[in-house]
Amino acid sequence: MHYYNEEDLDRFGEIAKYKPELFEKFLAWYQACQEEGELSRREKALIGLAVAVTVQCPYCIDAFTNSCLENGSNMDQMTEAMHLASAIRGGASMIHGIQAHNAHDKISM
Amino acid sequence: MQQAVQISRTRTSEPLPSPVSFKQKLGDAVLNAFTIDTLQVNVGKLCNQACKHCHVDASPNRTEIMGRDVVDSCLRVLADSEIGTLDITGGAPELNPEFRYLVTQARGFGCHVIVRHNLTVIFEPGQAELPEFFAENRVEVISSLPYFTASQTDNQRGSGVFDKSIEALKRLNAVGYGVKDGLVLNLVYNPVGAFLPPLQETIETDFKRELRDRYDIVFNELFTITNMPIARFLDWLRRSGNETSYMTKLVSAFNPATFPGLMCRTLISVDWTGRLFDCDFNQMLEMPLDSGLPQTIFDFDIGKLATRRIVTADHCFGCTAGSGSSCGGSVAV
Fold first, then answer.
1. Average pLDDT, whole number, for chain B?
2. Cβ distance B301 to B67 under 8 Å?
3. Can you tell me the distance from the alpha carbon of B294 to that of B301, in angstroms, rounded to the nearest whole number?
4. Which residue of A has its CA nearest to B196?
5. pTM, entire model
6. Domains, chain B, ranges and CATH?
7. Class for domain A38-107, per CATH?
8. Smallest CA–CA separation between A81 and chain B, in Å?
9. I want to staple B203 with a disulfide (CB 3.0 to 4.6 A). Which of B105, B198, B228, B310 is the partner?
10. Residues β-bridged to residue B65
């Protein structure tokens, strides 16, 4: 027994069972963001995968892995995107070390 | 030759787990042929490779190849009709002893000849000068290269195939393919797995850049082809647990805008025994032409066949998904 089921990704639309007008707005925004624009679909798919890994959403990781492949990316490129996202996440932790420095310096002689 | 993988046991009698049938999706639409401008001749299942996605189940162990009598009948049809293109496929068609006869005879009466050439066959005994043979006969060469890196290509087509393919492409370039007018070299991309191809123009740009920068290789066009859920690829889908999700993906991407460009509407397919089919996929599934039509190359009648009703089944979702798929690549924007 686990909370995440692969099949649930296909049930995304069921969120509209309640407050459908809000889900419709969300879906229009979500889809519009992925359209070709100043960034290509491929660039957006790589950003999506990087964010998906960062927010650790298994559904998003599944969806954006497919999207990356279907936009012509390979695993080396996808791995670079995932490393960058993870490195930023690591950096976000590391920069808080300055807070520790500050705290240390404040109370130390 | 490389060791063959197993021959698929998947047959058309085993239904695909499609959420709806292709006939339901078609609704009131009718798929008829517009004309026949191409005779696609599958000269047999013998191949020096045994690719994981092969819809023909071709391999070095297959023995079914077209003989001279069927070849001559194909040539008669081409000579006596307005069909301007001969599209030769297999297997590796070059391994059929009648291959060069078929090409030279067809070229002799002005037929445009396409060969679906797997590149590595030039390393088989007696095949080293194939690039020169192709060039002398002004054959259009269409070759599969699923990706511009070795790992993806070898995963699908067998260990060492990528390096051999690169060497073969260099030899084709050396005789003028992809370089000189009239010596056309087109490549085919198909996904290495259970996903749809990228936009053709996007991945073509990548292939041209990467093959030029990495290997100094040039070519004319890249065609994207969707993996068809039949035969060996269907076996893989089932073994890997991807069958249902792949069919759902194809059905979700169903695109009626692909209809006008579907290859079955302008092509007719011949198998190694001379039987006729709407396409090479129907041929492998042994789905004959609509009843009442001539069924073999021996009783070919273009008047009866040119606007025939196309026989469809759920595997047809493969050609109608997204931008569509045909022997000439995507068919819709």
1. 93
2. no
3. 7
4. A70
5. 0.88
6. 22-320 (3.20.20.70)
7. mainly alpha
8. 18
9. B198
10. B44
